[in-house]
Amino acid sequence: VPQPPPQPAVLPGKSTTEPVIVIPAGHTMQGIPLATLLEEYSAMVGRTLIPALNLPKVTFDFITKNDLTHKEAKAFYETLLSSRGIAVLPMGEKFVLVIPAAEVAKTPPPFTDASAKNLPEADSYVMVKVKLQHVMPSSLVGVLANFAKSPNSIMGVDHARILYLRDYSANVKRMLEIIEDLDVVKETHEAVIPTGGASAIAIADSLSPLTGIIRTGRLPSGLIYEGSVPGNTTSKLT
């Protein structure tokens, strides 16, 4: 008969700053039904579960090779459930909704304020709101879609510069890391060119190496020229 994992406890004389192990290495489950795993999960998170009626009939087999803290154990159980097509979504402070993973898009989870650094590497379903500073959300949607697992999990609102990310924690974590790389001030280059009394043609010739644009125009004779005109090109005007 599987035994529930030990609950967090602070031993006498033990520092409260040390992580508390809730699942020790060697914790074994063999062929346990979904209901048993959900009972363990419910006891660990301290919430009442509300399971959907259409959950798949699955079993679980595993043995832990490492001690797990409460945060690690929670992520472990949620990833186990996700691997069987089951998602858990918190509802307020006392309940957890348990539904088929295919239905998570219809049941958005509450927003989390966790940063990329604090999000777990797990299949825990989360929703994050990101306020961009330098780029438009629409310019990032295509890039971030490459890191999404759930369909339609990225929504951008340009006029508010806000991105809404709704996906599994590990995927959202990658997206937030990409956003940190791309939401930056665009690098610009400036050059000061003294013009004095130079003609428009000479100024255009000086700007051409900076802009990469080949100028065209009309000579006094009426002929059309393209590129540089001999005798009128200079790299620096004085």
Task: Describe the structure in your own words.
This is NolW-like domain-containing protein. It comes from marine metagenome. The protein is an alpha+beta fold. It has 3 domains: 21-103, Phage tail protein beta-alpha-beta fold, CATH 3.55.50; 125-182, Ribosomal Protein S8, Chain: A, domain 1 (2-Layer Sandwich); 189-238, no CATH class. Helix content is 25%, strand content 24%. The protein contains 5 helices and 12 strands. The protein has helices at 34-45, 70-83, 138-144, 169-182, 200-211, and strands at residues 21-23, 28-33, 48-51, 59-63, 68-69, 86-91, 95-100, 125-131, 154-157, 162-168, 216-218, 224-226. It has a 3-stranded mixed sheet with strand order 3-7-6. A hairpin with a 3-residue loop joins strand 6 (86-91) and strand 7. Helix 1 (34-45) packs antiparallel against helix 2. The protein is elongated and about 85 Å long.
